[in-house]
Amino acid sequence: MKQLFAYETTRRKVRRAFAALREQGIKAKENHLCCTTCATDDMSPVGRRGGVYWHGQNDDNFREDGELYIGFFTDSGKGSDVVAKKLVDALHSERLVVEWNGDTGTKVLVRSKKKEKRERY
Ligand SMILES: [Zn+2]
After folding, report:
1. From ligand 1's centre to the CA of 40, what distance in Å?
2. Helices (H), the chain
3. Rounded Cα distance, 60 and 98, in Å
4. What does each of the 121 residues of the chain score in pLDDT, given as a tens digit?
5. Phi/psi at 22 (nearest 5 deg)?
6. What's the 9 CA to ligand 1 centre distance in angstroms?
7. What spacing in Å lies between the alpha carbon of 7 and ligand 1's midpoint?
8. What is the pLDDT of residue 34?
9. What is the number of domains present in the chain?
10. Is residue 94 part of a domain?
11. Structural domain harbouring 76
């Protein structure tokens, strides 16, 4: 139950961050289709500001492990680092635990805090 609660709370915050990104003109899709290929194909073209998403497999992983991988991209591939930075900023604004190594080939990871706590036992 605790795990489910953490999942719901974190998910709500991520959805708020996505809403904020939409206000900046970024295309943001939640739990969108099954995989990276389907999600990005469907969202393209995302336009000048780029797009962010997580897909069904990411969502399953999030439910099970408390780790949500969020993808980001632009139509040309150029400037995807800027999209990623905006994504990380929006997630930080919601006080989420975010990991990203600055590599545009790596997805942004959000960890459910309560899940981490639970794992210490
Ligand atoms: Zn797919």
Report:
1. 9
2. 2-23, 36-43, 56-65, 80-93, 113-119
3. 18
4. 566 668 889 999 999 999 999 999 999 999 999 999 999 999 999 999 999 999 999 999 999 999 999 999 999 999 999 999 999 999 999 999 999 999 999 999 999 865 445 555 4
5. -60, -35
6. 26
7. 23
8. 98
9. 1
10. yes
11. 2-112
The pTM score is 0.90
Distance 106 CA to ligand 1 centre (A): 19
Q: Which residue has the tokens 């969202």?
A: 43
Residue 115 has what pLDDT? 45
Looking at the domain assignment, is residue 119 inside a domain?
Answer: no
Does 19 map to a domain? yes
> CA of 12: how far to CAs of 6, 18, 103, in Å?
10, 10, 26
The Å distance, Cα 56 to ligand 1 centre, comes to 9
Per the domain annotation, does 117 fall within a domain? no
Q: Residues for the chain: how many in total?
A: 121
CA nearest to 98, candidates 24, 10, 26: 10
pLDDT confidence of residue 30: 98
Q: How far is the CA of 120 from the centre of ligand 1 (A)?
A: 34
* Protein residues within 5 Å, CB atom, of ion ligand 1: 34-35, 38
